[in-house]
Design brief:
Layout: H1 3-12, H2 16-31, H3 52-64, H4 72-79, H5 83-96, H6 114-127, H7 135-138, H8 142-164, H9 170-182, E1 196-201, E2 204-208, E3 211-213, E4 223-225, H10 233-259, H11 272-294, H12 322-332, H13 335-359
Parallel strand pairs: 3-4
Antiparallel strand pairs: 1-2
Helix pairs in contact: 1-2, 5-8, 6-8, 8-11, 10-13
Length: 360
């Protein structure tokens, strides 16, 4: 028997004292109930009629209708991705977490749609705005927007981490090596494990890849640093090429920050676990967006499918013996090889430039 039924019985029997006692006990029970338990309406909580269904219809008309108010170009700018990718993510998130499924409450009123919740989460990620900022357009209150963001980034990490945040495979590493070689840096690595390679530059043989680095890194054979204050034409040519290539990584993170402003903004009140999920989810979606745009030629025209040539065989075998490990360490920390490799790359790039000049 619920509280309402009891109250009617007590009133009919004129037992007002028992009725009041029951109501006091019920109030205390609700007040002391665990905070993580769903208890329906909160005592003393003011409810605003946001007309959430109209918000869902407006969102659909603006971006997802057959003839939306805003074209795809504006969608990409505001959502940081294509509508095609948005729908793919929203569908996957909805199937993964029942929270994103649109439901009806006890009064038969429809709750927020999946698109409303995902839009609220993406707007916070894209613009770095407070949770209540999205209320006026998406018609979602602050607490729901926060919960949507938490569950959204958690779902993204769970669903797509293995595919879009994995270590580079053979094809990935080969493609990056081919791109670097076209830019004048044969066997230059971008990330991942160093493959076993053999190559010749300026008449000298090398058997280890290398990274382009700035001045704070040690003079090891696996690092190639720029020339400080270059004085001759060859050194200036090398410094320009090295710094331009090295900035690819910096530009990549710059694009990530521009795409998801929450990454560069203050941490606000998020807990450590949510901050980690936010960062990882932004990186995952960044990689998903790049893959999606590669499939769209007029957006990613600079991508050349020939870069994915896998004719080079790469070994990713690990070191098994300690003596081999120590020997490899000595080779990596060899400052003489570092200087020699830098000189050879200077000559190699200068020779390439001379060939380009002659062709022009």
């Amino acid at each position: 028997m619920d509280v309402l039924s009891r109250s009617i019985i007590f009133r009919e029997n004129d037992d007002l004292d028992d009725y009041l006692l029951l109501m006091i006990r019920e109030y205390r029970r609700r007040k002391n109930a665990p905070s993580n338990r769903h208890r329906g309406s909160i005592f003393g909580h003011k409810v605003y009629d946001r007309n959430r269904e109209e918000g869902a219809r407006k969102l659909h008309r603006d971006y997802f209708d057959e003839n939306p108010t805003y074209p795809e170009k504006i969608f990409r700018r505001r959502f940081r991705m294509s509508s095609r990718l948005f729908n793919r993510i929203a569908k996957a998130v909805e199937e993964h977490d029942h929270y994103f499924v649109q439901k009806k409450n006890a009064a038969g009123v429809r709750g927020f749609s999946c698109r409303q919740k995902v839009t609220a989460a993406l707007r916070q990620l894209a613009y770095g705005v407070p949770a209540d900022y999205v209320d006026e357009y998406v018609r979602i209150g602050e607490s729901t927007a926060i919960e949507s963001l938490r569950k959204f980034v958690r779902a993204i990490v769970h669903l797509f981490r293995n595919e879009y945040l994995r270590a580079p495979n053979v094809d990935d590493t080969t493609r990056l090596l081919n791109i670097a070689e076209c830019r004048g840096f044969p066997c230059m690595l971008s990330n991942g494990e160093a493959p076993e390679v053999k190559y010749t530059i300026n008449g000298h043989d090398y058997d280890m890849g290398y990274y382009l680095a700035d001045g704070i890194y040690p003079t090891w054979s696996t690092f190639v640093k720029t020339k400080k204050a270059p004085t001759n034409a060859k050194d200036k040519n090398f410094a320009k090429a090295q710094e331009a290539q090295r900035k690819d990584v910096e530009r990549a993170f710059g694009v990530l920050q521009a795409r998801f402003a929450i990454v560069r903004g203050p941490a606000r009140f998020w807990d450590e676990a949510t901050l980690r999920d936010i960062m990882v989810a932004c990186v995952i979606m960044h990689n998903m967006i790049i893959e999606d745009e590669r499939a769209d030629e007029h957006i990613y025209e600079s991508y050349d499918s020939n870069d994915a040539d896998v004719s080079m065989l790469i070994s990713r075998a690990g070191t098994t013996k300690f003596t081999s490990f120590m020997q490899m360490r000595e080779e990596i920390e060899n400052s003489h090889v570092h200087c020699q490799l830098q000189k050879d790359l200077i000559e190699h790039l200068w020779e390439q430039r001379g060939q380009m000049d002659s062709q022009e």
